[in-house]
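The data layer described in this paper is built around a simple, fixed record for each protein. We quote a single record here, exactly as it is kept in our systems:
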Amino acid sequence: MIEYTEQEGEHMAKIIGLTGGIACGKSTVSSYIRKKGFPVIDADQIARKVVEPGSVGLAQIRETFGTIYIRPDGALNREMLGKKVFAEPEALKKLNSITGPLILAELKKELNTSASVIFLDAALLLEDAQYRNLVDEVWVVSLKPETQLERLINRNGYGFRQANNRIASQMSDSERVKQADAVIDNNGTMEETLRQVDALLASL
């Protein structure tokens, strides 16, 4: 929970972590929550920000992985680097050791807000204790593994191995559900999913 001081005194925002595996529907739920008027901090957008051209993050990636992963215009070749790190666990650890601290520092800045409730949308919320410790509650968007794999292949055009590598690099859905304060079951229709979200928002 983030604490800070205003003229009126100490304010404490309730921070809800929203997470789920790749292609599980987390972004759809996050977008819906934002449309309902709640502020949402997107960790993926911050992850892109900390490796923009000229950033410390991009310089460290170049030094660690080589200039081959930098495009001619100076931007990170995310697709090329992604193929490497999701196929090589050690490379993924190296990348996370570079970007993790930078993302965390930026998150803390953005979470310092006057809102009474704020959402943190983060795929790796439960994989990293530093992220988990930022939030008061965890909401998990859940999807059956076989449906997740099918959606990822159809959405991104990945082959079976590439899609499976992406999923395997993350915590399993069942493990996320065990750690959740609330579970949003996304195995049904969109309307059924959003009704669950409405009920949770009403409970706030």
Notes: The chain has two domains: 12-39+116-204, 45-112. The first strand starts at residue 3 and ends at 6. Confidence is low (pLDDT under 50) at residues 1-11. Strands lie at 3-6, 9-12, 14-19, 40-42, 117-121, 137-142, 182-185.
